[in-house]
Amino acid sequence: MPSVTRIICLANSWKRGERCIAGITTIKGQWIRPVSDLPVGQVTKEIRQIGGTEPALLDILQIPLAKTGPDYGFESENLSILPGKWQRVGQFPATYLLKYCSNEEYILHNDLKYVEVPFLQSLPFPQRRTLQLVKVVEFYVRPLKAVYEGSQKWEGTIVTENHQRLTTSITDPVFVRKLDLGYRPKNHCLVTVSLSMPWRPEDWEGGDPCWKLIAGVIELPDSENQKIEVNNDDEIPF
């Protein structure tokens, strides 16, 4: 009987034609990223879907996982997926996640859009964090000209309670679909920020950069006093 781990799903985001699934354990709130044996651990539809449907944010999932997994040289959260079916065993209330939101000074290690691999490798293994949940009090979005995974690409700017600001790509397919259809939530959100696999733009100097991504968006209910201001035609706060 394989070991089964129960997590609250906080990301089901695009990754190399498949998905990256991530969440926190229901007991200790520890981040876990289930990874397959594909080159960068992306999770195929055959593995991740439950009864033909995608794992949704806030689903409580039971997943057969090993006790260890490949770290690709810099990630601390990965556990290898074992044979066996994934199960959906409940839903976690969004407001109960507030205690798991990070109070760190920065969104994932620094105030840049990326973290370099050598920096992550310089940290003790448990501190090589590549996933973080933050409470967002301002959120701006704008469509980009590019298309990703067959969908319009969107960029988001988030501002946290402690005034950290990050502008980056949105890789949450469900949230992107809502944006495509004109949906604009008005409440504060919980956002999972994830680091990408290393990718070097042309003429990049320095260590291989892992780019920060908005990998999961959960709208909080009953958030009052949120100001809605339209800055211009392309940037829409919500």
UniProtKB/TrEMBL annotation:
Pfam family, one: DuOB
Residue stretches making up the Dual OB-containing domain: 6-217
Protein name: Dual OB-containing domain-containing protein
Originating species: Floridaenema aerugineum BLCC-F46
